[in-house]
Amino acid sequence: MSHSEPLTIAITGANSGIGLRAAQRLAARGHRILALCRDPHRGRTALEVINAGAAHPATLVPADLADPDSIDAAVEKISHATGHLDVLINNAAVFDQTMRTPVFTSSGHELFWATNHLGPFRLTARLSPLLAAAARPRVINVASKGLITMPRIAIRFDQLDGPGWYSPTKAYYHAKLAQIMTTYSLALRARGALDVACVRVPAVRLDADRVAALPWALRMLYAPKNRLAIPAERLGEAYAALATRTGTWQHPGPAAEGRATLRGIYLDENLHPVDAPAFAYDAAARERLWTVSQDATGDPSWAW
């Protein structure tokens, strides 16, 4: 069942791929979209696409998730634009396989970790008062189906930004595991005041301009995989359905910590419950991750 009242929905990475398709669908159905995009030029182009079928004009919000100052500026703009936020979709991520050596942000964090985990963490915390002001707030995080090939993956607490183990693939899945764990932690901390979900996204077909931008060798290597990948439109519809659902929420009880309690928070592309990597169910590891993430993002306050 879908929401009948217009919702205010913030989507990161709304300029391409799944984020753009979700924004298009939600805007066409009457919802108010705050499109968070790192590149202002690509963001303006995407806004034209979104607004072509929008009931209410979408708002462009520049935001670089690797830059804490950019996140804070985005939060300030959103706060001026609305008194509440119904849904936050943390969709944006970096997965550039040409980055064979680690890149570090001005804050000293490895780029994949900063963009794919610390950025969404800080953004969600900073927007939590606006979410708490909504009648039925929801946060949607995004992980990857590729994690099923890594059942023993764990957070490298002693080397979160360490270059020694880095590869683009390892860094990407490491941050995606953190997204699942953060989703579980947030569900338990909010204790029913917030609907939280994490979507396990499979390989998605890249937009033509993204493929064209790849180096020739990588483009040839990626072509067969891209043909077999799921169209971004299908995942955009899944995001939209999850953003507007009015069905079952997860309401963990005060003593709940086990797998059964967390069931239904991590979902596949069809929005069916799936199991996370075993490490995500380690309560002590989740608490440690929350603590180090708080420290790394300036100890932001939360509404829950």
TrEMBL record:
<dbReference type="InterPro" id="IPR002347">
    <property type="entry name" value="SDR_fam"/>
</dbReference>
<protein>
    <submittedName>
        <fullName>SDR family NAD(P)-dependent oxidoreductase</fullName>
    </submittedName>
</protein>
<keyword id="KW-0560">Oxidoreductase</keyword>
<dbReference type="Pfam" id="PF00106">
    <property type="entry name" value="adh_short"/>
</dbReference>
<dbReference type="InterPro" id="IPR036291">
    <property type="entry name" value="NAD(P)-bd_dom_sf"/>
</dbReference>
